[in-house]
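Structure (tokenized):
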């Protein structure tokens, strides 16, 4: 039993670290290109192409989608859900949501200050934005928080895992697209936000899974349910 559990931990480590390593490499590559302004021409061409598809109806749809990725809204959602889970004695699930939310917001703020990239100014904005551009907070924080919610939902409803994964992925992609649609982020901001969000999500999930496995070696089934 112990051998199988430690083997599972090793597998999780290898897969998680491999994905995280690739995401970190991609983020570092994007960051270097952004600092050297090597992506400016492509970023600009993509945004100008998206401007041509603007319509009043699509504007309203995109406003609704971008609202679902507001960092303040997502932070409140993660803390509220975390509070509900804590009240129901799901301590580790509450913890991962709180860490995913607070950590993603704090890390994104620090990265924006570090890179201090100006936002696009290719046309008049129809939504209010502030602070720096790289990486996108909507992309990064929605990936981390919605990803954490999806992970927890799958643990409760494993038979619906592909539906949960598909819906969550489409929502996160739509949020990122909405920021490009409004011209408030460069495309590289969005990609970098996704990679940073993925790294943070993997760290949160990895920590919980390893903690649960080690705790499972020491607890009774009743205790495991209370701490799950």
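Design, position by position:
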């Amino acid at each position: 039993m112990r051998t199988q559990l430690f083997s599972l931990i090793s597998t999780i480590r290898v897969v998680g670290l491999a994905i995280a390593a690739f995401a970190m490499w991609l983020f570092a590559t994007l960051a270097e290109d952004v600092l050297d302004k090597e992506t400016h021409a492509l970023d600009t061409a993509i945004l100008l192409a998206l401007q041509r598809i603007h319509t009043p109806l699509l504007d309203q749809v995109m406003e609704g989608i971008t609202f679902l990725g507001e960092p303040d809204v997502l932070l409140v959602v993660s803390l509220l859900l975390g509070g509900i889970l804590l009240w129901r004695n799901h301590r580790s699930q509450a913890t991962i949501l709180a860490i995913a939310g607070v950590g993603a917001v704090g890390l994104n703020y620090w990265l924006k200050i570090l890179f201090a990239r100006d936002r696009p100014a290719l046309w008049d904005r129809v939504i209010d934005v502030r602070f720096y551009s790289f990486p996108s907070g909507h992309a990064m924080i929605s990936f981390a928080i919605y990803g954490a919610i999806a992970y927890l939902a799958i643990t409760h409803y494993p038979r619906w895992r592909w539906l949960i994964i598909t819906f969550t992925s489409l929502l996160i992609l739509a949020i990122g697209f909405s920021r490009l649609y409004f011209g408030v982020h460069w495309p590289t901001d969005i990609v970098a936000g996704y990679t940073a969000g993925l790294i943070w999500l993997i760290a949160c999930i990895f920590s919980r899974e390893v903690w649960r496995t080690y705790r499972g070696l020491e607890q009774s089934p009743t205790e495991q349910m209370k701490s799950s």
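Reviewer-requested clarification: Residues 2-227 form a domain with the Vanadium-containing Chloroperoxidase; domain 1 fold (CATH 1.20.144). Residues 63 and 122 are 19 Å apart (CA to CA).
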